[in-house]
TrEMBL record:
Residues 78-380 form the Tryptophan synthase beta chain-like PALP domain. Pfam families: PALP. One of its GO terms (molecular function) is threonine deaminase activity. Keywords: Amino-acid biosynthesis, Lyase, Pyridoxal phosphate, Threonine biosynthesis. This is Threonine synthase. Pyridoxal 5'-phosphate binds at residues 141, 242-246, 379.
Amino acid sequence: MKLICFECKSDYSDKSFQYQCHCGGLFQVVHDFKAVDSEKLRRMFAERLSQRMSMHASGVWRYKELIYPELPEAFVTTKYEGNTGLYASESLQAYTGVRQVWLKAQSENPSGSFKDNGMTVAVSHARSLGKQKLACSSTGNTSSSLAMYAALAGCKAYVYVPERQVSENKIKQTLAYGAEIIRIAGTYDDGIRFLEQNYEELGLYVCNSINPWRIEGQKSMIYEAAQSLNWKIPDWIIVPGGALSNAVSLGKGLNDLYMLGFIDHLPKVAVVQAEGASPFHRMIEGNHPTLIPELQPQTIASAMNIGNLPSWRKAQAMLSQTKGVTVSVTDEEILAAKQLIDRSGIGCEPASAATVAGLRKLTASLIIDPDETALCVLTGHILKDFASFLDYDN
Ligand SMILES: N[C@@H](CCOP(=O)(O)O)C(=O)O
């Protein structure tokens, strides 16, 4: 296992842990799967499904051999995350126009969002380094997840949260787990920039998705979905695009599964952004060489209120590898999709509903064929962000 710069490929495995290479690139964990016996692993992963209250009962650590094989078990901080539901819904099939649609409810994680899959690994890595002060910039889901795992690990969480346009439910949840909250007069992007510049001086271990261990944990989402479907992957996987950790970790997980022969082809991936915060979509659609940040991102889906996405290069590479696409949807389309997801009994926060809205739009424009199958990732729980729901219904 190595820590390699995604841009210039410098090897930082033996250096002290950091988030950016001298060239400005982010890091990536690179595994050597050559010696892996895929058949044996598949059997092991199946056997572990019946485990309870052991590390392998976690829907992340079940796949430890593919995520962080070297980590001693004593450092693993787990709340048996993952193990989230995969639902089929006839009403959503009719709404999106495809033959079969599954919803992967990452919202069923212990802190109520997909961040837990990655956070359990980042916090475990932090413990292995002896770190006590953990930090993040957040619109509320990352902060709730970090606060929960930091409390479990006996560490202190410091979270940088925008003063405006965040769900106060998420902030209260973060506070309740005992984190220290620093409200900033800016966006998530300003918080990340601050942490990148000051983490060393402040002695902070950063748990955002610029941390490659977050990505290693989050890739387990697609392992789990594929295992639930007996390793038959749908034609399309649809993820929301905020800071892009979903897109990046999905690409890495799919690549692992394909390299190991668990799946026989790579599915196509669609990244859905909200129109008011869609710099990545605009870059891909306009065939621009670099991302032009959105200085004032604005969407009702508060988890996607992000304008300067640190991981855009990794997400761009994932899209070209999977022959994927991007699409943007309006706040109205997001809320209409959310209402249907909620009334199907599954429920989600607005950012999650962007996936279903995006799938509908891509099918209507014939980019996705009605005869294809799709899996939409629901990222956050229905109770996370209620303001927009009330606005919509009144
Ligand atoms: N919407 C996110 C933004 C943080 O993204 P991260 O993946 O870099 O932690 C949040 O919940 O804060």
